[in-house]
Design brief:
By secondary structure, the chain is α+β, with helices and mostly antiparallel strands. Helices cover 42% and strands 15% of the residues. The strands form two sheets. It has a four-stranded antiparallel beta sheet with strand order 4-3-6-5, sandwiched between helices. Strands 2-1-7 form a three-stranded antiparallel beta sheet.
């Protein structure tokens, strides 16, 4: 038979069970509230209620650098997120390569050759300056080769075992040919000196008279078309009697010149002006030029005449620096680690 009030022990058990059940209900309610208050939970709740929402996205910023790590730009510290670190140079395609210029690989041994031939210097930028020179040299070689002005092979180009002295000589040749192919002015001069630092063996007055007669005769025949400039120069070279007038007459008899359109090609401004006034193929009058003797005196010294062979004004450059400025972008430079 059961009593309606129960024993004291049963009452205690009922109270404990009721307390635990109440606590569990409170915990469940709190968890439900927290879940529904988050973006993902709200999204799920909205879906249960028939509301369509955009689920939250997680974004990973690869450029982020933690405050503890710092960055390339701020030197570290607690400044928070920073910009993307500076890129590193790519790995070299093969051992010993420090750069690619256009189609050519540049090697560390090449730079060492440049440094070895450079005068000793305390300038910390010497290697960088020489590297830039090597870049220009490579561009000049490739450009001159592209224009058909020079020919290259592995002894001078794109090889770790190139002959560097031969390469430097080819660079100089390429420069001269590029300038000659640019805006330039070229011609031929026939001359006979009678005061080449000193009078000839026949004396000053007699030498001047002989020189005038010979040059005037040759000039007349060239102008008439009887002989060419080249034939006139050759006649002077074959005349051994002119040794009494100028001991160096064979060397001085005829020469050609090429100059950029902005530079003076001749030491004598007067003759320069005469030549600049000619058209292509035109021959100047006989010109009496001056010279300076070994004692410092200046006097009449040479009879000569010239012909303009070529004038180029459509290339857009007349110096190697101007050529590089125009063509540098054709040959991209990549530096390696």
């Amino acid at each position: 038979m059961f009593s309606g009030e129960g024993t004291p022990d049963n009452k205690k058990l009922l109270l404990v069970a009721g307390g635990i059940l109440g606590l569990l209900l409170i915990i469940i309610a709190v968890l439900t509230l927290v879940r529904n208050s988050s973006p993902a939970g709200q999204h799920a709740a909205n879906q249960r209620q028939g509301i369509i929402t955009q689920a939250p996205l997680e974004i990973f910023d690869s450029s982020y650098t933690s405050p503890q790590q710092g960055s390339y730009l701020d030197g570290g510290g607690d400044s928070g997120p920073t910009s993307t670190p500076l890129p590193t140079r790519p790995a070299a395609p093969r051992a010993g390569v420090i750069a690619r210029v256009g189609e050519e690989l540049i090697y560390n041994v090449d730079l060492n050759e440049e440094v070895a031939s450079f005068p000793p210097s305390d300038d910390p930028e010497v290697r960088e300056k020489l590297f830039q020179k090597m870049v220009d040299d490579s561009i000049i070689l490739q450009g001159a080769s592209r224009e058909g002005l020079i020919r290259m092979n592995a002894t001078v180009y794109n090889s770790a075992e190139k002959n560097y002295a031969k390469r430097i000589a080819l660079v100089q040749d390429a420069k001269e040919k590029l300038i000659a192919a640019g805006d330039s002015y070229s011609g031929t001069v026939v001359a006979l000196w009678f005061f080449n630092q000193r009078p000839g063996r026949v004396g000053y007055d007699q030498g001047k008279k002989i020189a005038r007669q010979r040059i005037t005769d040759l000039h007349s025949r060239v102008k008439s078309g009887a002989i060419t400039m080249e034939q006139a120069g050759e006649e002077l070279r074959r005349d051994s009697s002119l040794y009494q007038v100028d001991e160096a007459f064979r060397i001085n008899a005829i020469y050609t010149f090429t100059s950029n359109v902005k530079a003076q090609f001749n030491y004598d401004p007067g003759f320069e002006k005469v030549m600049r006034g000619l058209k292509v193929g035109e021959i100047s009058d006989v010109y009496l030029g001056k010279g300076t003797g070994g004692d410092g005196t200046t006097r009449d010294a040479v009879y000569k005449f010239g012909r303009v062979d070529k004038i180029i004004t459509n290339r857009g450059y007349s110096t190697i620096e101007e050529w590089l400025e125009i063509n540098r972008n054709e040959y991209p430079v990549t530096r390696y680690q």
